[in-house]
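Hi everyone,

Forwarding the result from last night's run.
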Amino acid sequence: MSEIILETIVEDKRWSAAIADIEQVAEKVKTAAFGWLRTHENLEFLNGFKPLKINVCLSDDETVHRLNKEFRGMDKPTNVLSFANLDFADFDADNEPYDEIELGDIILAYETMVREAAEQEVTLQEHFCHLLTHGFLHLSGYDHQTPDEAAYMENAEKEILQMLNIADPYEGE
């Protein structure tokens, strides 16, 4: 069973001030998300012997806006961006020579996350846990392009967040 290594980069120091022990919080979310995936899905990449590495960058609106425009063609910031390496056709072959496998990158925008948490009347930590879970699911092959995909992904998010004692973020929608 593959070990999952989380590399958390705090690019915007406001994250550390806003959420105490943010790296440990991210680790708890990782443990819950990938524990759920291992018990609910048969994902081949989780059953390998090489460690899987995920980079989480805690950034700001300016950086996420630039990346969103460059890679998604959307000229605005967003709350979270996920760049999954599983999407590449030669994922297995490309990773054969390496000791660890880069599963992908997740980038979160501080200002957007703070605004959304206030609008949803949840804590920043709860919103962070939700969107980090969302990012982990994207890196694992989940998407929400169709109504069925969206419903399946939302259900997974709700179950994972429940493991973390976080209320259903979709309740009341």
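The chain has one domain: 4-163.

Cheers,
N.
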